[in-house]
């Protein structure tokens, strides 16, 4: 067992919709500097747990600690500012804008719009903008998108759009990235690229939590797997451990 504290730790996390319990997790941890995959059958609560951790929905009960700080009361953009940044299964991009502008729009922290826009002197914000633009171009280059950086993203393939979303998440300088189905609907070549970029982020000291249905890819990329079923964690371990766990076979793999 690692002696380092987990970067993310949730305790007693519950979320109900009406009378239905979507998530009821006693303990959920994400170790630092690794890829953790969250898997489980449809309706198991993966998206809800992801939403709870990233702050897009708030839990009925429970605590969430990120990097030693209680974050359960913070909205998503404040968690993002602390370094906890997510992507979406269906990319949330502005189709008419090119990739560069999507990266620039996506990273404007909500708190900065308004206050900073009204208080910063024009020449200063202009210099910031140039720096941001250079960073956006650098992030797009990092994920191999330089050739399509100036095309409206609505014209890009599903895989390219996932890469734009990934690059946009990197713009926020995350320490932990939550990736919602990064390999779904992505052609094999871009899928391999995405795996490399995820591994590179982790090699640089980052942490990744991903939700993914593509089990072969999960087994390849994750050091640790958490299996959810009916809102609860039924197994946690290495890919080999969880795939040999009879509860996981019964609930998920065997189906
Ligand atoms: P998964 O991502 O593993 O497929 P979800 O987290 O999307 O599972 O859903 C878990 C359960 O919670 C499902 O039964 C789903 O119908 C229910 N659920 C999720 N979001 C809502 C919501 N906003 N309102 C009502 N029920 C919901």
UniProtKB/TrEMBL annotation:
<keyword id="KW-0813">Transport</keyword>
<feature type="domain" description="ABC transporter">
    <location>
        <begin position="8"/>
        <end position="255"/>
    </location>
</feature>
<dbReference type="InterPro" id="IPR027417">
    <property type="entry name" value="P-loop_NTPase"/>
</dbReference>
<protein>
    <submittedName>
        <fullName>ABC transporter ATP-binding protein</fullName>
    </submittedName>
</protein>
<dbReference type="GO" id="GO:0005886">
    <property type="term" value="C:plasma membrane"/>
</dbReference>
<dbReference type="InterPro" id="IPR003439">
    <property type="entry name" value="ABC_transporter-like_ATP-bd"/>
</dbReference>
<dbReference type="InterPro" id="IPR017871">
    <property type="entry name" value="ABC_transporter-like_CS"/>
</dbReference>
<keyword id="KW-0547">Nucleotide-binding</keyword>
<dbReference type="InterPro" id="IPR003593">
    <property type="entry name" value="AAA+_ATPase"/>
</dbReference>
<dbReference type="Pfam" id="PF00005">
    <property type="entry name" value="ABC_tran"/>
</dbReference>
<dbReference type="Pfam" id="PF12399">
    <property type="entry name" value="BCA_ABC_TP_C"/>
</dbReference>
<dbReference type="InterPro" id="IPR051120">
    <property type="entry name" value="ABC_AA/LPS_Transport"/>
</dbReference>
<keyword id="KW-0067">ATP-binding</keyword>
<dbReference type="InterPro" id="IPR032823">
    <property type="entry name" value="BCA_ABC_TP_C"/>
</dbReference>
<dbReference type="GO" id="GO:0016887">
    <property type="term" value="F:ATP hydrolysis activity"/>
</dbReference>
<dbReference type="GO" id="GO:0005524">
    <property type="term" value="F:ATP binding"/>
</dbReference>
């Amino acid at each position: 067992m690692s002696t380092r504290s987990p970067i993310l730790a949730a305790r007693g996390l519950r979320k109900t919709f009406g009378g239905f319990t979507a998530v009821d997790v006693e303990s959920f941890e994400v170790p630092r500097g690794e890829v953790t995959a969250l898997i489980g059958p449809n309706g198991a609560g993966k998206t809800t747990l992801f939403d709870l951790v990233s702050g897009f929905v708030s839990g009925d009960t429970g605590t969430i600690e990120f990097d030693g700080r209680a974050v359960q009361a913070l909205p998503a953009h404040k968690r993002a500012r602390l370094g906890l940044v997510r992507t979406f299964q269906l990319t949330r991009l502005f189709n008419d804008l090119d990739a560069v502008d999507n990266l620039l729009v996506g990273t404007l922290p909500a708190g900065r719009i308004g206050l900073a826009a009204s208080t910063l002197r024009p020449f200063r914000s202009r210099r910031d903008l140039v720096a941001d633009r250079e960073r956006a171009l650098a992030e797009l280059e990092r994920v191999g998108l330089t050739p399509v950086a100036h095309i409206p993203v609505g014209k890009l393939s599903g895989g390219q759009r996932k890469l734009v979303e990934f690059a946009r998440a990197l713009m926020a300088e995350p320490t932990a990235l939550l990736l919602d189905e990064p390999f779904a609907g992505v052609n094999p070549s871009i899928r391999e690229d995405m795996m490399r970029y995820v591994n590179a982020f982790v090699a640089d000291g980052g942490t990744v939590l991903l939700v993914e249905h593509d089990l072969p890819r999960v087994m390849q990329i994750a050091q640790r797997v958490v299996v959810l079923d009916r809102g609860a964690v039924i197994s946690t371990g290495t890919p080999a451990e969880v795939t040999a766990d009879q509860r996981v076979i019964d609930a998920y793999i065997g189906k």
